[in-house]
Amino acid sequence: MKKTSLKWQIAFYLGAFAAVLIAVIWIFQMFLLQPMFEKSKISSVRKTADTVSEAILSSSDDLNEAIYDISVQNETCVRILTSNMNVIAGNSGCALYRMSGRELRENIDSAVKNGGSYLNTSTDPGFEMDGRELKEITYTKIVEKDDELNVVMVYTGITPLNATTNTLRSQLKWITLIVIVLISLIIIVLNRKIALPLSSITKEAARLPDGAFHADEKNNQYLEAQQLNETLEQAADDIRKADQAKRDLIANVSHDLRTPLTMISGYGEMMQDLPGENNEENLQVIIDESKRLTVLVNDLLDLSKMQAGRITLDLKDFDLAELVSSEIRKYDVYQYNESFEFEVHLPEKAMVHADEKRIEQVFNNFMTNAINYSGNSRKIIITMTEENGSVRTSVRDFGEGIDEKDLKNIWDRYYKVDKQHVRFSSGSGLGLSIVKEILDLHDARYGVSSNKNEGSTFWFELPLIQK
Ligand code: ADP
Q1: CB-defined site of ligand 1, < 6 Å
Q2: Which of 229, 321, 348, 464 has the smallest number of Cβ neighbours within 10 A?
Q3: What dotted CATH number matches 312-463?
């Protein structure tokens, strides 16, 4: 399903936010203002009554003055009566003076019945404002002092808020307009800052397959966009490198395939044309070159399968010491014919859980490399040591060694320290990259230490199992 673009999503969410905000303000002003106003009036009436009661109890000298201060503060009018309805103190001109004796009595009686206080809200039909009646609140409180009952009456009127609401409504229209304009501006700015860089990076990223992505600085408006830009640029760089590596690989493979093929066809034709050349030596060259081809093709297939993740390990328990010692025997011919000297230190037993065929391949790679790069020294030490529940197998030679700068590259496909050596070694230049794949699949530790002209030690470690 096609998703809505970021631009519209920003507009939608901010628009919705503005709409909710405006609606909440309208609801508060239009419907909740009156009840809230009433509530605050009632509480101020109660407060006034409480303060006046305190003034009575503390025998304030001038009650009238105290009442005046309090009632002005709370916008109320106050009267203090005796239980016989004689006025003790009060504001002059207070609406309470309009109250009939009967009404006063009713309020006082209700307060007595009610446990000392009574709140009376009523509407005054005689007083209208904008078609709405005035609401009146009368609070009556009985205060007992020196066995005498005093009555505190507090009154306030709530004028209808219609006039106020009208003002508010016109203000709200302006607020709404301002909010809409502001939100529209924010939407435009956010689009510029967030959505635009993203879509321009996406457009540029279409060129990624060619490795042609170029990060534009002006799209780095915020951290995430900058990170995306950098990641894509890195990816483009990797693609370019991979492309180059692919081209190199093809060039290397074709070169390595062509050389033995030229030899085979050359020697074949020579043997065909010159009967005298039809001898065992020349035949051996053809056989050797065919073998080299087979090694190369097999290595390539192996590596590509491993890199595509199509190889699964055939894990089982086996004795690595036994495997190594039987593999070393295969190299005996080098000891006899080419005066190599193998020094071997193996434990009795070293049970591991791994893919036996693949580990054999790893060991043989280390061995052939040690032999190929031994130079004149001809001594090779094979050691297996147990440490911290693991067994480390190492193959050490005393040959030409590897330069520090080449060390990290030798595990790469087709990396050869000295390109001239290609023809002398039987390797395909893929050996160590296959070793790396196999050991990585095993999650094994491995490595090499080497000094130029002093030789190299290649090693790998596998966890021991108790058997
Ligand atoms: P190759 O078929 O060329 O031996 P490898 O992948 O096995 O390919 O090795 C990669 C490169 O690492 C070799 O070309 C060589 O330069 C270097 N190398 C590997 N083993 C040794 C060693 N024991 N001594 C010195 N150099 C080595």
Answers
A1: 365, 369-370, 373, 397, 399-402, 410, 415-418, 425, 427-433, 456
A2: 348
A3: 3.30.565.10
Query: pTM score > 0.85 for this model?
Result: no
Closest-lying ligand 1 atom to the alpha carbon of residue 433: 6
Q: Tell me which fold the domain 223-306 belongs to.
A: Helix Hairpins (1.10.287)
Q: Which amino acid residue places its CA nearest to atom 14 of ligand 1?
A: 416
Mean pLDDT in order along the chain per 10 residues (467 residues) = 84 92 86 84 89 82 78 82 81 75 87 89 69 80 84 83 73 89 93 89 89 85 89 90 81 82 92 88 91 86 80 91 93 85 93 94 93 89 94 94 86 64 53 90 94 92 87
Ligand 1 mean position, distance from CA 237 (Å) = 28
Q: Give 260 Cα–ligand 1 centroid separation in angstroms.
A: 20
Q: What is the 3 state secondary structure string of the chain?
A: CCCCCHHHHHHHHHHHHHHHHHHHHHHHHHHHHHHHHHHHHHHHHHHHHHHHHHHHHCCCCCHHHHHHHHHHHHCCEEEEEECCCCEEEECCCCHHHHCCHHHHHHHHHHHHHCCCEEEEEEEEEEEEECCEEEEEEEEEEEEEECCEEEEEEEEEEECCCHHHHHHHHHHHHHHHHHHHHHHHHHHHHHHHHHHHHHHHHHHHHCCHHHCCCCCCHHHCCCHHHHHHHHHHHHHHHHHHHHHHHHHHHHHHHHHHHHHHHHHHHHHHHHHHHCHHHCCHHHHHHHHHHHHHHHHHHHHHHHHHHHHCCCCCCCEEEEEHHHHHHHHHHHCHHHHHHCCCEEEEECCCCCEEEEEHHHHHHHHHHHHHHHHHCCCCCCEEEEEEEEECCEEEEEEEECCCCCCHHHHCCCCCCCCCCCHHHHHCCCCCCCHHHHHHHHHHHCCCEEEEEEECCCEEEEEEEEEECCC
Q: How far is the CA of 426 from the centre of ligand 1 (A)?
A: 11
Among 368, 381, 382, 416, the mutation site with the greatest number of ligand 1 atoms within 8 A of its Cβ is: 416
Q: Which residue out of 362, 377, 410 has the highest number of ligand 1 atoms within 8 Å of its CB and is therefore the one to mutate?
A: 410
Give the start-to-end residue ranges of the domains of the chain. 32-160, 223-306, 312-463
Is the domain spanning 32-160 CATH 3.30.70.1350? The answer is no
